[in-house]
Automatic annotation (TrEMBL):
Protein's recorded name: ABC transporter
Biological function: Part of the ABC transporter complex HmuTUV involved in hemin import. Responsible for energy coupling to the transport system.
ABC transporter domain sequence ranges: 3-229
Species assigned in the record: Thioclava marina
Source organism phylogeny: Bacteria, Pseudomonadati, Pseudomonadota, Alphaproteobacteria, Rhodobacterales
SUPFAM superfamilies assigned to the protein according to its UniProt record, in alphabetical order: P-loop containing nucleoside triphosphate hydrolases
Keywords linked to the UniProt accession: ATP-binding, Nucleotide-binding, Translocase, Transport
């Protein structure tokens, strides 16, 4: 098992923004963490990693920071790159939890991460001089270079063009197929339905659904949690999801 959460709660003041969530992540899974703005997705991931105070138990939260970083890579929503490093140098920072291994396995992991994200030709560019979407892809490559079995990513595909969004979801699928696991929050329910093996739906701090996309994205759930009406069909080309209108709150 890659991650186990047992009655995890995150309090902001007296108010639980994550409310008694129990769930687990196994090897091979690509879990889409979905839910409206403010539902508690970021707080759940940060609580699971032990980055913010939480009640209950997360299998990752007790680990020391280096051991935790070897077990799980964390890709936060904020994407600011502060230093004028080259793309290759920035991706190599993902190797820090493995000590000084810039030769051999470390260098190979950096190359592989650049290749997977299609960034080979960017390797010598100054990271701060890239566009927002390009920087986002470099930070995903840094997380891949970490070679942690589990990746937790907070809206990693927001702001990427359609090809980069699909390519990133395919990179995550490949990571899961290779025996790892990914939990990623995202607002694009179409991409979530097409690429994720499982969806966790959060609403007002609670995990209100956990299952395969076609089991989870029911008309009732879309109305009650997302306040939308949508087309959702399984087609020969896979699941196709199109939001149609809001239902009001
Ligand atoms: N530092 C903070 N102090 C107080 N309340 C906070 C803080 N951070 C988040 N919250 C509250 O916790 C709740 C959950 O926020 P969180 O960022 O986990 O939601 P989210 O599902 O990731 O939302 P989004 O889709 O908008 O990124 C929200 O109601 C938010 O206002």
């Amino acid at each position: 098992m890659m991650l186990e959460l047992d009655n995890l709660s995150v309090l902001r003041g007296q108010c639980p923004v994550v409310d008694s969530v129990s769930a687990q992540v196994d090897a091979g899974e690509l879990i889409g963490l979905i839910g409206p703005n403010g539902a508690g997705k970021t707080s759940l991931m940060r609580g699971a990693l032990g980055l913010i105070a939480a009640r209950g138990r997360s299998s990752l939260a007790g680990l020391d920071p280096m051991a935790r970083a070897r077990a799980a890579a964390w890709l936060p929503q904020a994407r600011e790159i502060a230093w004028g490093l080259s793309v290759a140098e920035l991706v190599a920072l993902g190797r820090l939890p493995h000590g000084r291994d810039t030769q051999g396995a470390g260098a190979a992991a950096v190359e592989e991460a650049l290749r997977r994200m299609g960034l080979e030709t960017y390797r010598d560019r100054t990271a701060t001089h890239l566009s927002g979407g390009e920087q986002a892809q470099v930070l995903i490559a840094r997380a891949l270079a970490q070679e942690s079995p589990l990746i937790l990513a907070d809206e990693p595909i927001a702001g990427l063009d359609p090809a980069a969004q699909i390519a990133t979801m395919e990179v995550f699928e490949a990571h899961a197929r290779a025996g790892g696991a990914v939990v990623t929050s995202l607002h694009d329910l179409g991409l979530a339905a097409r690429h994720c093996t499982r969806l966790w739906v959060m609403d007002r701090g609670r995990l209100v659904a956990d299952g395969k996309p076609q089991e989870v994205l029911t008309e009732q759930l879309l109305a009650e949690v997302f306040h939308i009406r949508a087309h959702f069909r399984i087609t020969p080309e896979g699941p196709v999801f199109q939001p149609l209108s809001t239902l009001g709150i």
